[in-house]
Amino acid sequence: AQSVTQLDSQVPVFEEAPVELRCNYSSSVSVYLFWYVQYPNQGLQLLLKYLSGSTLVKGINGFEAEFNKSQTSFHLRKPSVHISDTAEYFCAVNRNAGNMLTFGGGTRLMVKP
Amino acid sequence: GAGVSQSPSNKVTEKGKDVELRCDPISGHTALYWYRQSLGQGLEFLIYFQGNSAPDKSGLPSDRFSAERTGGSVSTLTIQRTQQEDSAVYLCASSSQVGQTAQNIQYFGAGTRLSVL
Prior knowledge:
The structure holds two protein chains of two kinds.
Chain A: E1 3-5, E2 10-14, E3 19-21, E4 24-26, E5 31-38, E6 44-50, E7 56-58, E8 64-68, E9 73-78, E10 87-95, E11 102-103, E12 107-112
Parallel strand pairs in A: 2-12
Antiparallel strand pairs in A: 1-4, 3-9, 5-6, 5-10, 7-8, 8-9, 10-11, 10-12
Chain B: E1 5-7, E2 10-13, E3 19-24, E4 31-38, E5 42-50, E6 65-69, E7 75-79, E8 88-95, E9 107-108, E10 112-116
Parallel strand pairs in B: 2-10
Antiparallel strand pairs in B: 1-3, 3-7, 4-5, 4-8, 6-7, 8-9, 8-10
């Protein structure tokens, strides 16, 4: 079985500041890693994914994440946030040959002017 | 439409009633998933359909929950004798089948918000 931990339930940050949303996972098998964003009253939208290859992956809206196998982490970063980035962010894993996503508890990013 | 469509967007019901939630996946997607999003439990997997294979029901919380997928497209999630703890947002997702299932991007609908009074 795998599990996902998002260490911060809320992250307040000022506009144009950098941000890092932390995600750690545990799994006894290889996994694929995803970050999703959920805006109010909407479904989840994929930001980026790591399947294999380069450990630094770039996604939409200027976000990027780095896969660190030794630390079992997949932290999400953005160098300069906008008000419009205010949303809930979910880290998720799917094990090799698995079907369902296992999600972390989510991190609410609150961007202040 | 281009995305995953779920109906109704909101459903209020009385404890003990049955409810049906509908999901229209993206055209051509062979895989369909149901998840539940609640305050106490976060996002949880419920059930997975892939083509004509038997569904993976391992996430269904009780036998009051069931789902079917007709003609490999539309899916209905049914909750019988609803309880207050069933109150949550029910999300449907679909994906294409390219390579390993686990690698495929799941596209989510906006969800059905179920409130059991």
